[in-house]
Design a protein that fits this description.
32 strands, mainly beta, 3 helices, globular, disordered N terminus, Methylamine Dehydrogenase, Chain H, 4-stranded antiparallel beta sheet
Amino acid sequence: MSPGLGRRQALTVIGTTFIAGCSRSSPDNPTSTSDTTHATTTSSNRTTKPTTPIEQTSKDVKTSKLWPQNRLNAQNTGYADATGPTKSPLQYWEHRVSKGIRFVESPVLGEKQLFIPNIGSDEIIVLNLSDGTKKRVLDVPGQMNYSPAIVSDVLYAPSGEFVVAIDPKTGHTRWKTDLSGGAGPVTVVDSTVFVGVTDGSSAVYALDTTTGKIKWRAETGLITTPPAIQDGTVIVGDWSGFIRAFQSDDGTELWSHPVGRDDWIQAAPVISKDTVFVCSGTHRYDHGHVYAFELKNGKERWSKEFGTGLSRSPAIGKNNLYVAGFHGELYAISQADGKKQWTYTPEGTDGDTATAISVDFSPITGKDTVYYTGSDQQLHAINVRTGKKRWGTKNTHGVTLGPILGGEYLFTGSTRSLFAIGPSQDK
């Protein structure tokens, strides 16, 4: 993978054939982007054979918990105050797609519905939360490369060089703003959408949620992850190898810091209390660091060196930070000093570069469990304290999406499928 190449661009370089090989269906040549189907003819649109394979249930998914943004919240913590399935989970539903549909980014969870972009198209697919059936397809003005955000019943989507605000019920576009460069993942806080540019005129923007008007713009390197915001400070990491802090109301730069010997920041910055955590790496993905900076002034508190590039977004726990290496190994390190607590490596990890590029290893955390997609293309549930595996899927076809958590339910999938995993019994 070339220095300026992100995961989505790399997937294009590798090619459609490889992507289809990682999916649950046989390879298809994408044609119509409106052909969404399930691998069953039953009226409920549930699949008759579990993909995981774990035991199925015909029960509906019921949760009021949300996962509205890329890394859940404005701080990008990836931590949900929820239990999640901890043992013997069930597959509640699976939504399979065919020609012209490709899932690369994880969904976001709104009230009673999931939103997932059809990558490389001008569509966002909306699924019913309860049973995974398709509810509608929303058209956007440009190519979808990242997940949208659903906040206060408005969908904010990075679409080509635009950020658009969409009514999720009607599909009506409320506004669209041209960034003169590829729009990256968005973070929505109060009355502002914060977004970086992934190519072209590299900068971070602040947009008004009501009108789309640009409040301010600040120059940066290229940004391919969602900004993190807390206490009036916007944090972005860029491909030039800098972590930068801006004042949220007017874009004044507060501080910036290079990532030493590393070349880039591809993982989302994370804020926990008064500390900013940043993962970095080199062009060869053979070296990387985790840094901890003071949010207020950018002073470095500590750094931890790794023998792998850290290109996936980390997640926060009670005391630890959970970080995935380039080939899918998972590390727990102390937030206080970066000391390694445990390492988890899935069986069958072979260091394959194509797998490392195509699978999103970004972990998420619940109260007692870390969930992530490993290099074996399976979903893993790991005890946060011990690093021991609680359970995992055994799907030979592979899981490629990073999971999201809504109460007791997980949502993840592959390029051609999205499924819901939940508790084994009512609680």
